[in-house]
Amino acid sequence: MTNDNFAHRADDDAYARLDAAIDATVKVNADRNDKESRFPRENLHALSDAGWTGVLNEVQFGGLDCSHIDFAEAACRIGQVDASTGLVYVMHVGAAQTINLFGSTDQKERWLKSNNGRLLGTYSTSERATGGHWWYNLSEASRDGEDYLVNAEKSFTTSSGQADYYVVQTRTPGAKDQADIVFFIVDGTSPGIESRPWDALGVKANHSGAIRYINVRVPQRDRLGAEGQGKEIIYDGVSPVYLIGLGSVWEGVARGALNAAVAHTTRFVHRDRNKSLSDYQAIRQELGAAKVLVETLRPWRNELAGQLDALWRAGRPQSEILIPLTEFKVHAAEVANKVAATALTVTGGYGYHRGPIERAFRDARAAIAMGPSNVIARDWIGKALVGLPLELFYEGGE
Ligand SMILES: Cc1cc2nc3c(=O)[nH]c(=O)nc-3n(C[C@H](O)[C@H](O)[C@H](O)COP(=O)(O)OP(=O)(O)OC[C@H]3O[C@@H](n4cnc5c(N)ncnc54)[C@H](O)[C@@H]3O)c2cc1C
Known about the structure:
By secondary structure, this protein is α+β, with helices and mostly antiparallel strands.
């Protein structure tokens, strides 16, 4: 099946609205939200009012019906001023896209379109019991009449305690094996959801804390796809959009840190020599090396995002480029860390103060841990390189 109507490029007006929301709201709130670990709800509302939280949604469900190229560009621009909001945005668009791809018309009406498209979604997959193997759940849903009951202990969920809906991954009731997975859309107001406070090194505003679902009742109409379809949803729904979005946020963080470093090093002047920091060749070497790293990301991002659009248009699984997307995530995470460190080096004590540069340095560390962690991801890439299967679900697993 081909999807000829999918993926228009966003026009100049849409980008003007995006930039206005970023400049007037996201940028303005970033430092305060970080300091107060305050969830960036106003930022998401501003992005939603600009239409961009529905970037991949069909027009009939209130979306912009735009391409993955536009989604990735938006994630990068948001990440450039605030990684926390960038991650909340990516998890939301990813959750919505999973509904776009696998949801029913009724689900799209209720979760994507209602409340003027302002409902905030997120992914809830990682479990305490299996750590960084976020695709692998030990939790299992049960049946209660026509409904399901979800019991799960999720170790991290961005926007936990804040989201209007959670796209939750767990095993099918009576699962026949570890890959017998089902997804649910869980209403954030359901009784039995307990979220823990979020207190971490960076991305302090994005509330990525632990969350428990205790006998949370989910009606059948909120099962996403079929029982047992979860493995396909992980590969073709959750992963591609998440990986391109995540890498794009980290590219944005790198760009933001470099811009802040350039601004300070060109502005600050040593009065004894009457030279700015950027007049020193050693400083320019550092900035130049960082610039080269940052510029590796944009063409790669556009190429991969364009491939995601082409695969979708051709009706082919987007997981065909899972490994290249993983490579992009790894590189973007490393570039964000290197460039943020450079920004701290060249701005000295100024950069070390509370503010955008030290925030980028702290935020970028999350990039390494977020699934697939760079360690796990490099193993996937190496396996693909030497012709071994990924074996996410393996013989002998519980
Ligand atoms: C800021 C932030 C936001 C997040 N948001 C979400 C979210 O919205 N939804 C969600 O579901 N999850 C989310 N996560 C969870 C994330 O995707 C990972 O699943 C989680 O960080 C893994 O936990 P861990 O590092 O404690 O795992 P551990 O498994 O304890 O990993 C510890 C170390 O071991 C390494 N390791 C683990 N397994 C292997 C292996 N097989 N081979 C080699 N090395 C290995 C890891 O790379 C890491 O270095 C988030 C995490 C963070 C930090």
